[in-house]
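User: Predict the structure for this protein chain, please.
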Amino acid sequence: MSRKFDRARYGPGWLEVTLGAVLSIALGALLAGAFFILKPTATVKEIPKEPVPGMVYYIEGSREYSRARRYTAKEKFFINGGSVVVNEDELNTAANPVATPAAVTSNSASAPPTMLLAPGTPNFHITDGSIQIAIPVRIKIDLAYLDRTVLIQATGGFARREDTFVFVPRTMTIGSCPVERLPLVMDYMLKKFYYAQPVPDEIVAAWHKLVEVSIQGSTLKLKMP
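Assistant: Here is the predicted structure, written as structure tokens:
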């Protein structure tokens, strides 16, 4: 009884106040992150001279057949151990579509809620010595009545890691939310949606033989020994 009286008189303790503040901050950060992740990006041909504050822009890589018709010959040459230089049209032509898992159609009230993260076909854009790889990801959460496609954009270059070259982004956005300052989030996105993209075995084998991967202007140079 005395403890209840003291609590009513003096209010909550420092521990309770601190815990409440931490939970409030965490919830606010979570809601803010969800807002920016679901905020659409603006697809443009070029970045405006006066960008809108808070707006994230997306420049889609081109896929013109006239600039990609030599890809098949380059692919065979690369598999056989030859160095090649490819442009974004050729990369986008070669990009493998990712099958989207079938949506849940059950109307049963007892069916457990599902969560779906389904990546789409990657898009490549090369400019100013950097490569942008964008992947649309369908987010479906039955419990939250959410079914939305979010664009993940990562821009950077390539670096050797152990015995192969991997894509290393300098910047990454999920929707309109920048996450390059969150290494754990970036690593998860890379492993989940980038490094897990399906690639033919012969391309993987040839890629492991590379001695240099560099971006020159608007092209990607793959150098063999």
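The chain has a mean pLDDT of 81.
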